[in-house]
Specification:
mainly alpha, 13 helices, two-stranded antiparallel sheet, globular
């Protein structure tokens, strides 16, 4: 007679139960799980694709909203500066809003018509001045000494500047900031209205955003966010002031030496100077070439005056205007500007520097101290 197996055996005084049996799921249950997983992944992918297409279709509106926020942060230091000079918050906001409206009116009624006129003048005058330059007595020896490089360059420049498509793309890309005239005007009004609204609710919007952070981290987050936004605003407003000074100096200098299209070149210099570190160098090179086409003497005067201005800008204007808004090494400034410009154009080059400053601030005051405590 066989003995029945025991459910457990006694080892000493402690009963030990046998290990539980492994029950494999039924094939139908495995199939259902696979279907649910497949449907979930497919629906998630379709939802992500639909979201991406939706954002792509409204990319113009998103850019306008982003640019309005960008302008708001840059105008906030001006509001606070007015408050520090016996303006109430409301009076400072109204003053800045009127300034925005005045800038829009000036662009529509003064700047754009003058730019269109000077584009037409340059398109006609520069080829004529190049032809006169080739007939000068010193041109043939200088061209021979350079193995024809000077003549080839001037010929290419004449053909390029005589092409209406070049001036159209220049006006569309630099002055219009990548927009056609009609859409640029409508987008400009939209951005201006959004900037006014964002500026009037700037503090309340920040406080509402800070409340989304958990209470245990809110104080430190608010501290660093305010410091980053403050540096961001100082950098933007400082760059605009420096670019305006450079643009005004370029316009007056070219006007004095008699170079045609001085106003247009000054406007272009304003946008180029917004590029950190190399903006003034680029404007100096371009202005010297244009002045050389007018006359070699004008080129020498422009080059010397711009070299002097570069020293004044580096040692007097930048320290006074920028202060300590962006405390990052020059190499990081250049790399950030190039990377931001390659990704998002002029706007990317502008925001790359303060973003890098914010990252360095977090690394220096949050990550490094945390690593020292561990």
């Amino acid at each position: 007679m066989k003995r029945q197996p025991r459910a457990w055996r006694i080892r000493g005084t402690t009963p030990v139960a046998p290990p539980p049996a492994v029950v494999s799921p039924a094939p139908l249950e495995v199939h259902q799980r696979g279907l649910r997983w497949g449907f979930t992944v497919t629906l998630g992918g379709l939802a992500a694709l639909a979201t991406g297409l939706a954002f792509y279709s409204i990319r113009g509106i998103l850019f306008s909203i982003f640019f309005a926020m960008f302008v708001t942060v840059g105008l906030d230091p001006l509001v606070r500066w007015l408050q520090g000079h016996r303006f109430s918050r409301g009076a400072a906001l109204v003053t800045v809003m009127l300034l925005i409206v005045a800038v829009l009116v000036a662009i529509l009624w003064v700047i754009i018509p003058v730019i269109i006129t000077q584009v037409q003048v340059l398109a006609v005058s520069i080829p004529q001045e190049i032809d006169a330059l080739k007939e000068a007595g010193w041109f043939d020896p200088a061209n021979a000494a350079s193995n024809g490089v000077i003549g080839t360059f001037l010929t290419w420049l004449t053909q390029t500047l005589s092409d209406p498509a070049f001036w159209g793309s220049l006006a569309n890309g630099v002055v219009g900031i990548g927009l056609s005239l009609a859409s640029g005007i409508s987008s400009g009004f939209f951005i201006a209205i959004l900037s006014i609204y964002f500026l009037s609710t700037y503090d309340a919007t920040k406080e509402a955003g800070f409340k989304l952070v958990s209470a245990s981290h809110r104080a430190s987050f608010t501290h660093f966010a305010n410091r980053i936004l403050e540096n961001f605003g100082k950098y933007l407003s400082g760059m605009v002031i420096v670019a305006f000074i450079n643009s005004l100096w370029s316009f007056l200098l070219l006007l004095v030496v008699g170079v045609p299209g001085a106003f247009l070149i000054g406007v272009i210099a304003f946008f180029i100077t917004l590029i950190p570190l190399i903006g003034t160098v680029l404007t100096t090179i371009g202005m010297t070439v244009i002045a050389f086409i007018h006359s070699p003497t004008s080129a020498i005067i422009v080059l010397i005056a711009m070299l002097i201005y570069m020293q004044v800008e580096s040692y007097i204007i930048d320290p006074k205007v920028m202060g300590k808004a962006v405390e990052i090494p020059g190499s990081v400034v250049l790399i950030s500007a190039m990377a931001g410009g390659a990704l998002f154009g002029l706007t990317g080059a502008l925001i790359a520097i303060p973003v890098s400053a914010g990252i360095i601030l977090i690394i220096r005051e949050v990550i490094w101290p945390a690593k020292q405590r561990t």
